[in-house]
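Quick one before lunch.
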Amino acid sequence: MVYLNGEFMPISAARVPVMDRGFLFGDGVYEVIPVYSKRPFRLAEHLKRLRASLAGIRLANPHSDAEWAQLIGRIVELADFPDQQVYVQVTRGADGKRNHAFPKLVRPTVFIMTEPLLPPPVEQRELGITAVSAADNRWLRCDIKAISLLANCLLRQQAIEAGCAETVLFRDGFLSEGAASNIFAVRDGVLLAPPKNHLMLPGITYDVILELAQQHGLPHQVRDILETEVRAVSELWMTSSTKEVLPIVSLDGRPVGDGKPGAVFARMYSWYQAFKRSVMRAGQDG
Ligand code: PMP
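Model of the 4'-deoxy-4'-aminopyridoxal-5'-phosphate complex:
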């Protein structure tokens, strides 16, 4: 079942008008929330980022956090699989005509669906994934989780066509993030993360990784990372809500470090799994 504008229905019954600004302009924002054993992970943080994205595109939040939690909870309950990825999308709705200017009266389109969340294949974790790099040619508000993902799709496709899993993006000589992930590096045993700013999405998983580093006493620095530096680090990781954390073992056909998942990755991966288990056991949303 999906939720669309106040109603729960089978996905085959869900319809959006062709004049919807999401369809015409990509005028909307979204969230993807991982759910383990029917418990949403970091829901409060995802709803906070949704609020920031909506404010970023000047669209009123159609629901309070409590209402969102209730709607999402219902969709999660209705699904017959325990681990899920819940997708939430809000667009600026339809206005009868195609006009860049905002409608006078905005009736947002609110859509929620869920799909099974499968952990990445074991080989990806054990052998690592490969990546290519590209110039980050997206707009300057990558902190907004906008549905207009054309640039991200084109950039990710470069990886796919090279037989790789992700595209690592550099802007003006600095690491920004992946086409659909945040990127971390390890240099001389120190975990490096690019600082949150308007050039990257503030990842929920990114925060979890830094919290775990802090908790377990792993040396870490949040700072600008040069492209030249990235090409000489011993480990490179990608993180996202659906992939959690994965080691990148090759960039543009050249090995990262010794070309195998690193020791720091192995530690972080086990901390992440233990954290997930503890959160789920405690029955909190992390
Ligand atoms: N950056 C981009 C561009 C993304 O699309 C995503 C999510 N797929 C991320 C970073 C990771 O964010 P999160 O950890 O919140 O899933």
